Amino acid sequence: MSFTSRWGDVYLAAGARAVSVCGDFLAATTLALVLQGAGHGGLAISGLMVAASLPLALLVPVAGRIADRVDSRRVLVVAGFGQALVCLVLAGTDHPVAIIGLVALLACGLAIVQPTLSALLPDMVAERDLAKASGIYQTAGVLGMMVAPALAGVLVGQMGPRLPLLIDAASYLALVVAGLALRTRRHHRGGSVTAAQVPYRVRDDRTLSIMIGVLAASVAAMSSINVLMVFLVRDTLGASTTVYGLVEAAWTAGMLVGTVVFARLPRRLMTVRAVLLTVVVSGVPLLLGASVSVAPWLIPLWIIGGMGNGGTNVLVMVIVASRAPSRSRGRAFAALGSTVQAAGLLGLAAAGPLVDRFDPRVLVASAATLSLIIAVTCLMVVRRETPQPTVDPERVRDSVGA
């Protein structure tokens, strides 16, 4: 039975992702500025960062089961309304403890929405179009990420914090619109086996487990380097805040390019070994960046590193969607997200105390080297991948029109 890709659904889901990601970063940047402007110190800011990340790591069992058991339309509509309501409350809150608690609630919604949308995307397109759809989806997220910090800075500076948070509340309604408008839905009514009865664990797929482990190491390294970069650029290299902003923007710009380029790769080249190679491509510029004498040299290096990062995102989505059974994709994407978020938190937690004791150059080089060693070692371990079926017999049955 043939399956025609629903590109309207892909663009609608990508648009919802762009708006909601922009809203997520808009809220995070706005609230960090609010706490800093009110005189709260690093503890409050770090608490905000932890509140925004920890639920994504802790809720993986719940989020994965919801994505696989519950109608995707219901998940997107309920979560979108819930997150919009939390943002409305945030707009009228100024106590740091209340802000951190509400941000944690927002992150709970995100923990459920992310695997639901990721598991839904492969059901929108035929296998041959999965890479292109993944590229569109990832590009939308990067664009939302690029716009948000600048938008938050302008809005907070000109209008105060309330308007950005109200805009953020409206952005979550994009999920509601997407949930109602998407023709593709995931639900598992009928049949003799339900999603809850399908035994699936990511760790049973050795190759996929290795890939996720390398991703975790890479994310931990990059998270720690994100903290270290302000000290490397501003203190060690003596650059201005403008140069620091350009360096940070260069990585995101590279991600955008990498997402577009890698989405065009032939499907046969999208392997776990390719993912490990893109991790190496991301890590080498970080290692070289620790040795530069002037900050502007970081810009081309960060563009290259970001391209590898963007390619990794596209390849990972295609590979997880291909290797995980259709009925278990929600759990697979939730496990991936949980591992990456936990690694990111570990990197953030490690960087803070270390930067006060060691040279930022040494720390950046050490983090990049560790990530590269793990990636290269795993490249030698992954000799070949388990063959996967080119046609998922459950794709059409699990993807139904509204």
UniProtKB/TrEMBL annotation:
Topology versus the membrane: Multi-pass membrane protein
Gene3D superfamilies the record matches: MFS general substrate transporter like domains
Signal sequence segment: none
InterPro entries named in the record: MFS, MFS_dom, MFS_trans_sf
UniProt domain Major facilitator superfamily (MFS) profile: residue ranges: 1-186, 206-402
Keyword Secreted attached: no
Cell compartment(s), UniProt: Cell membrane
Major localization listed first in the record, in broad terms: membrane
Keyword flag Transmembrane helix: yes
CDD domains given in the database record: MFS_MefA_like
Gene Ontology CC: one annotated term: plasma membrane
Pfam families: MFS_1
Membrane spanning residue stretches: 12-35, 41-63, 75-92, 98-121, 133-157, 163-182, 210-231, 243-263, 275-295, 301-321, 333-355, 361-382
GO molecular function: transmembrane transporter activity
SUPFAM superfamilies: MFS general substrate transporter
Keywords, alphabetical: Cell membrane, Membrane, Transmembrane, Transmembrane helix
Name this polypeptide is given: MFS transporter
Provenance organism: Paractinoplanes rishiriensis
High-level lineage: Bacteria, Bacillati, Actinomycetota, Actinomycetes, Micromonosporales
